[in-house]
Automatic annotation (TrEMBL):
Chain coiled-coil ranges: none
Organism ancestry: Bacteria, Pseudomonadati, Lentisphaerota, Lentisphaeria, Lentisphaerales
One Pfam family recorded for the sequence: ELFV_dehydrog_N
Matches recorded under InterPro entries: Aminoacid_DH-like_N_sf, Glu/Leu/Phe/Val/Trp_DH, Glu/Leu/Phe/Val/Trp_DH_C, Glu/Leu/Phe/Val/Trp_DH_dimer, Glu/Leu/Phe/Val_DH_AS, Glu_DH, NAD(P)-bd_dom_sf, NAD_bind_Glu_DH
Active site: K103 (proton donor)
Molecular function terms from GO: glutamate dehydrogenase (NAD+) activity; nucleotide binding
Binding-site residues, NAD(+): T191, N222
The protein's name: Glutamate dehydrogenase
Transmembrane spans: none
Boundaries of every Glutamate/phenylalanine/leucine/valine/L-tryptophan dehydrogenase C-terminal domain copy: 184-414
Entry keyword Metal-binding: no
Annotated positions binding substrate: K67, K91, S350
Amino acid sequence: MDKLFKNVVNIFNQACKKADISKTIHTILKQPKNEIIVNFPVRMDSGEMKLFKGYRIQHNNILGPYKGGFRYHPQVNLDEVKGLAMLMTLKCSLAGLPFGGAKGGVKFNPKDFSISEIEKITRRFVHALGDNIGPNFDIPAPDMGTGAQTMNWMMDTYLNTSGSLDRQCLKGVVTGKSVKVGGTKGRAQATGYGVVMCIEEWAKQHNYKISDKTFIIQGFGNVGSWAAKRLDSLGAKVVAVNDCAGTLYMKEGVPVRQLTEYIAENGSIAGFMGQELLSREEFFSMKADVMIPAALENQIGEKEAHAAQVELIAEGANGPITNRADEILAEKDIQVIPDVLANSGGVIVSYFEWLQNRSNDYWHEHHVLEKLQDKIIKAYHIVHDLSIELDVSKREAAYIRALKNIDEVYNERGIFP
Ligand SMILES: NC(=O)C1=CN([C@@H]2O[C@H](COP(=O)(O)OP(=O)(O)OC[C@H]3O[C@@H](n4cnc5c(N)ncnc54)[C@H](OP(=O)(O)O)[C@@H]3O)[C@@H](O)[C@H]2O)C=CC1
Ligand SMILES: O=C(O)CCC(=O)C(=O)O
């Protein structure tokens, strides 16, 4: 089984060499600054006490407060969260945000717990983290298995336990909250929309008419479903969706809104419109124009890369392609828009939420989405141009650009001895 942190560090090492990053900066960045692990007890509905393990990995904060999501998933582990935290440092730097990188999570499957148990787990986790998070220090956000409701509980717990009277500014302790409690319009759709905005830009460069193309999406949660909605509005056909239950294939295109509603009610694609599901293997070998992995890391390994029959992969998920698979895809001339660029829409709009919380001035949705488009398209062209100039993949170009920004800041500030 590939390890995410190792995969990310391999590309980081290559990029450091190509970007001529000093040994000192390489040494600072190759491990996270802080690895926080908490074990905390929570009383279940049955009265039983259960112990949970939570992580917050703070990779680097030279550019600003640590920033990155919290994941609730049974596979959460230290290696995974370290890899995800390093990706956040690179993602924020590439997007030009005044944030560093962090990631966290709790190892459990939310599907096995009641809403009130999930609320208690969330509140106890925030309590256990204490001052390790804060609106000017480390700002969590949603990731797999968490969403606006989780962020609302987190903010509420932090406000009630921090001891500070500055309720307004403290709202920015987490982003991705619901709009009524201080979230921004546009955050829910930001990551999925951002992925498609990158695909739209790629399409313009390749004289590619999106409305004539077929798309396949792994994962139909926050990222996958919003990407599908934007594709649908552009007239494109999403012909297959894969989740843990299997692969839904509909030749004429999946009815995106109905599927979103169905999953919200039933928890998965199983049973949708009476369709028989295909296998995971059939998803990864399906002939289509574009694939959007929007689930877990390491989904496209050697086998899936050999089987792939698409022209472009836009990484909605973090780290969905292993190092070896990256090489195979390059040999097959399958292009990749890398995670640190393609899924940066989420953290970009999180930044807008944080700004709105600080100023107490809330923006229209169209303004948020316009600003998102400006930022992500700017990053897209920086990556594209650099990949041509240096003759490297878009992933390497993205890492190189992000590392150069960080290197420059360290060099101008100097390093504390
Ligand atoms: N939310 C955000 O703003 C951002 C998310 N990302 C990344 O995007 C990815 C998805 O996140 P998000 O949409 O928020 O998560 P969600 O929890 O909303 O959705 C996850 C989706 O992935 C599916 N999934 C999980 N495990 C598997 C598997 N083994 N095989 C197939 N499908 C699977 C789930 O299906 P099932 O119900 O069957 O488990 C579900 O459809 C993650 O990699 C995350 O790090 C990146 C940037 C920002
Ligand atoms: O919105 C954020 O702050 C972080 C989103 C995230 O976790 C990610 O981009 O992987």
